[in-house]
Amino acid sequence: MKYGFARRVHKLKSSAVRDLLKIINQGNIISFAGGLPDDGLFPLEAVENAFDKAFQSGKQALQYAETEGLAPFREAIAERMAKNGIKSSIDDILVTTGSQQAIDLFTRIMFDPGDVVLTENPTYLAALQVFQSYEVDVKPVLSDEQGMIPEDLDNKVKKYNPKAIYVIPTFSNPTGKAWSHERREHLLEIAKKRNVIIFEDDPYGEIKFDDNETFVPIAAMDTEGTHVLYTSTFSKTVVPALRTGWIKGPYQIIRMMAQAKQATDLHTNSLSQHALYHLLRDFDLDSHIKTLRKTYCSRMKIMKELLESINMPGFSYIVPKGGMFFWVSMPDAINVTSLLDEAVKRGVAYVPGAPFYVDKPELNTLRLNYTHSAPDKLKKGMEILTDVFSNTLTNAK
Amino acid sequence: MKYGFARRVHKLKSSAVRDLLKIINQGNIISFAGGLPDDGLFPLEAVENAFDKAFQSGKQALQYAETEGLAPFREAIAERMAKNGIKSSIDDILVTTGSQQAIDLFTRIMFDPGDVVLTENPTYLAALQVFQSYEVDVKPVLSDEQGMIPEDLDNKVKKYNPKAIYVIPTFSNPTGKAWSHERREHLLEIAKKRNVIIFEDDPYGEIKFDDNETFVPIAAMDTEGTHVLYTSTFSKTVVPALRTGWIKGPYQIIRMMAQAKQATDLHTNSLSQHALYHLLRDFDLDSHIKTLRKTYCSRMKIMKELLESINMPGFSYIVPKGGMFFWVSMPDAINVTSLLDEAVKRGVAYVPGAPFYVDKPELNTLRLNYTHSAPDKLKKGMEILTDVFSNTLTNAK
């Protein structure tokens, strides 16, 4: 039988990253491809203890639950956000099945086919997948190392009258960039002036390398809480398996997202919510995050050192101040997707940058993750990779 | 700020049942409203043991995972389905965040706005919510106690050229009905003849009251595996909190749903998948299900006895052969939504039948759940409710 799919699936491409993960998981490959935290650093004992407490809290923790999320868990989330300057009440918070679902639900309730969202370029590819699957018209805004360029942002807001602006201002995926304070302020200003929603995706904000630097979430600047939706997750700071994130924003939008969530999956795994509630209450998550920062920073430096060893015109990279990724540019002539075969043959994987672009991909870019591999593996993999790169660069001359 | 939502949200109504749950959870009310299993019967020890084993299986169980679901878990699901005559390989199975997500993903990949789905009437209201949220045109097929009436089904398949037919053939929600074997065969026959997908939603099939009766899933009749998508869940047989279900069907459709799932929530909570895998391997789930059958059957009989005590023209109900619900009809003149206030004041809740209808709701119908309340509460609640009903019926004469 030939199956007639909906029009929207023609826009639906499988994530290159996730398909790659399957291949990589099968072999003995050093992977800089995924966006995985290091499982060696998972706070396993804390998570186990938290589940024990969840079980002790009674059978109610195993029953159907409210779509909005467990109320004491939302309170704990509100407290955590308050530490970053984001004010909220539990009614402004919806617990989601990972922050991926927050992007999906928002898009579902906000965008008709042809409505416009502005994004950075490149940007998180699974956000692009969501936008495309709802036939949203994605328009990229020019960026530099400080964030979106104000002139281009202003022009495109005027020209396209977007419903929302999707940004990852703190240690973005894929580029690892952090926006300057001024650019954040400007974005909020234009959003307020033109009544556009900012969707601030912040899975990496906690993973910062310099304790003395501060990156204020745009949601914290939006003191009236009218223009910013803020989403984050426990996938990077606790464990990914629980698929538990949240979104905070204007009540009217959160309420509508909760209604959409009812139809999508009724509610997020409530045993995991109970467990995370206990973990937030009884475990020193901030101290654990400090360990993550230190460890990931030292791995970033190992990777940086080896990238520095490549000294060729046209080869460049952004040194991240936090998060999980290096963004690397090769000379224009080099197609990194073809190069990937060679790298995988030699036992190392990365992700080509192309799928992160809204349009006209820059085929000479790639993303490297430094959080997943232990230092010795990281070093070994980077030695191979820099060799692959150097050979290519030498041959390309 | 005034927020401009997508057109599809105007079709999105909050589920009357789930909103009701919130009120009921706050008060000291005996509830026949939700579709909740009894938490007193949850296999708590088995679930705890299963989580212990999942934790022991290593940190990998807490990492990001494949969208399709944990392979050994899908194998265990395939084995369970095989017992019911449904043949599958793990590639035909997608693990979903509850079977609700299976309905959502299927609708998302299959239906453009205006495409038609045929359903029973009344039918599962959260399926109607999904269809409506994607602007699917839902057309009801006339049914009797045996299932969809063949003539009407044939006519409507011809007339509307539907993309799919959504059915809950075994102990349906809300009516508790079970389709006859002949009607199942007829449905499959017409689906094959006209190339229509059957979406068989089967969360209740395991909860049957007579061991000697057999209800063959339509998916088991579809020996070539080309025309039936079959979804079920562990929410009714293990616990609901884990939000873990699955869908089985033609690889091409399952593959497309997996792609849609990537954009929706990346993958289902993998710690829960690991735990359920261990539970299926080490716990005698079939014996547990036998206990559920026996217990729920005896509660159904308590409810039946009290319903029998109402002997008035125009009052009727369907005696279920399994599942979780009685479907009750009052005389035409009685609006059960108004009557609900009176019932709740006296400490008992039920769900009006209206939201389960595709169109033209029969305002004199209601659904009663008998699985959630322990026998003494069930009896007490039903005594109050039959009193409320009898008073109304007497007054209405």
TrEMBL record, chains A, B:
Occurrences of domain Aminotransferase class I/classII large (ranges): 36-379
UniProt KW RNA-binding keyword: no
Cofactor(s) this protein cannot do without: pyridoxal 5'-phosphate
Record keywords, A-Z: Aminotransferase, Pyridoxal phosphate, Transferase
GO BP, one annotated term: alpha-amino acid metabolic process
Pfam (any one): Aminotran_1_2
InterPro entries linked to this entry: Aminotransferase_I/II_large (IPR004839), Class-I_PLP-dep_aminotransf (IPR050859), PyrdxlP-dep_Trfase (IPR015424), PyrdxlP-dep_Trfase_major (IPR015421), PyrdxlP-dep_Trfase_small (IPR015422)
Keyword Transferase set for record: yes
GO molecular function: pyridoxal phosphate binding; transaminase activity
Subunit structure: Homodimer.
PANTHER family: AMINOTRANSFERASE (PTHR42790), KYNURENINE_ALPHA-AMINOADIPATE AMINOTRANSFERASE, MITOCHONDRIAL (PTHR42790:SF19)
Similarity-based family: Belongs to the class-I pyridoxal-phosphate-dependent aminotransferase family.
Protein name (record): Aminotransferase
Organism name: Pueribacillus theae
